[in-house]
Specification:
The protein has ten helices and no strands. The chain is mostly helical and 217 residues long.
Amino acid sequence: MLASPKPTKKELVTAFRTREILAAARQLMEGRGLEAVTMEEIASAAGVAKGTVYLYFPSKDELIRALITQVGESMLRDIEVIVKSPAAPTGKIRGVAALLLDYLIRERVLFPVYAQDWRHTGRGSPSGYWSHFQELEEKFFDLVTPVFAQGIAGGLFIPAAPRLLTFMLRGLVRSVGYYQMAEGREEAVKEAMPVLLTLLFSGITPKPEPPAEWMTL
């Protein structure tokens, strides 16, 4: 097996500078909201010139999309750990659902942007963010759909298209995200968690388990 080529100094600097700019942007936006923060403020917080920020991110929209991509990649890594664990399919799906809800709380500032229909707003992106979002979505389905398939094969879930069940899980989580947006408070997700899990498992398991179990997550 060939070793991966060693990154060049330019690539290392680019990766470091990108992380610094995104970290500065995230901190400012979490404190004041997406709309209030300017690219000049992000540059100052990152310790670089405003022109340097635009060199890496041609617009504020591109920077925000990069933040969403960063979150998506992190979330997929966390999901992969869950689905590769020795837990039963029901435990894995509970874990994935709880993780997604936790991300809703942590990323409540970015969720409204992510919730927009990138199929229409992102196609013209010169940096290819739209296609990358689609790749992240497909990776999510590639990770979670086999878990539903395994549960169906073992009689733990009702016979249905595994990919359909994955879509339904994602849809339920997004609905909680919209609820959080409407209520404007972090506790909204915590309130919705037992309801979401009860609805999900009452629908996909042949013999639904008592709702009290979901409260222990």
